[in-house]
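Dear colleagues,

As part of the handover before I leave the project, I'm documenting each prediction I ran so the next person doesn't have to rerun anything. This entry is a single chain, and its sequence is reproduced below.
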Amino acid sequence: MGARDAGRTPWIAAIEGYYGPPLSADDRDDLVRFLATVGYQTYVIAPKDDPFQRANWRAPHPTEDISAITALADTCAAVGMGLGMTISPGLDWRSGDPGDLDALTAKVESLIGLGLSAFGIAWDDVPGGGEALGTDHGAAVNAVVQRVGPDAVRWFTCPVDYAVTNATPYLRAFAAALGDCVEVMWTGPSVVTDRLGADHVRVLAAELGVPLVFGENFPVNDLGMSAVMHLGPYPEREPDAMAQTGGVMVNFMSHPLASRIGLAVAARAWLDPEGNREAAWRESLQLLDGVEPLARACRSWFDRPGPDPELLAWAMSAGPDDRRLHHFLDHGCRDGLDAGLAAEVGQWLDAWQREADVMRLALSILEASHGPAIESTGLLAITWQAARKADIQAFGIRFAVYPAAHREGGRFVGHPEAVVEGDNLTDVVVRRALARGSG
């Protein structure tokens, strides 16, 4: 189980599942209208910091939230999409308490009645456990599904152990208690997965015997990733791996306009797994006027933290006869940008400009026909030092912490590549300039 029927279109859903303030009703409405144009079938409301979905899940949603959800369901229907939601009861779930099961069922029924087409009961990011906990969580999901009705919506769930290569005792028990009409979210061998291979899906699907949906943690940038804006191409997912899942749920950034690039390239990849990811990215940049300079400076991700390859090539050849990088930087990063997008990514636009100012100073040294004066190299060192102290990342990642981790023995185990540390484009250009000065 878990493989799609040959020729069947994958389920492509966007999930508002990040840590941080939930989107406003207007932002959700605008985003849904965009998503419908690039291939999405479902929008799922699941922000971790919505208290009525997680920390205070038993309480009914406020009246204003109910009105907003109903309105969004209407928008989804109008553009040919469905609306989904999640409830995450795991922080204070009382195992074996029939009152909690009744409360969960009542909450789910009340939300589905607002016009939802998909619903998820999520146990992610809560304390782990073994077989007994897996049975309890799976049985709770199954009980709600049977009470509400297996055909009421498209059901999905996220277990505690959602980032694994092989089934854990928790997962085996969870799947055994779950029933066969609920899809299981899984982020691959890590919370943030650099490469998804066919064997990753095949092994876990065979062990669990349940349908899997890939939980895509790109382009999301919460927690330790928050200094990095993910505006680059879609990560490597093998076509055979995609074919063996029921589809994908793409977790995006708390920046809804900027997220459109990552959401667009993800949808294109799942609709055309054999397609060229670089070409798809460059074409998707045209969806947001004026965004290309910023996107090229923010294309880095944890498995490719360096600068844009073309900009890096220009940096390495910069000199009196090659001013391509200088021309790119002189063009700036704000011309033609939508005012809403510019406000949303203002910190990264400022970082772009700060890094560009340092690079232009370094390029003036590389492009000069004679060696630099001591004053020039001194000023360059000072401005470079200031840029390196900034938190917001642009033109490559200097330092960020990604959730590259998997579940093992009831706990998350971090991978060495979780800490991304390196040089950005400014560092490359400045070092070249200083080397010339010292020579």
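Residues 11-287 form a domain with the TIM Barrel fold (CATH 3.20.20.80). DSSP finds 16 helices and 14 strands in the chain.

All the best with the project,
I.
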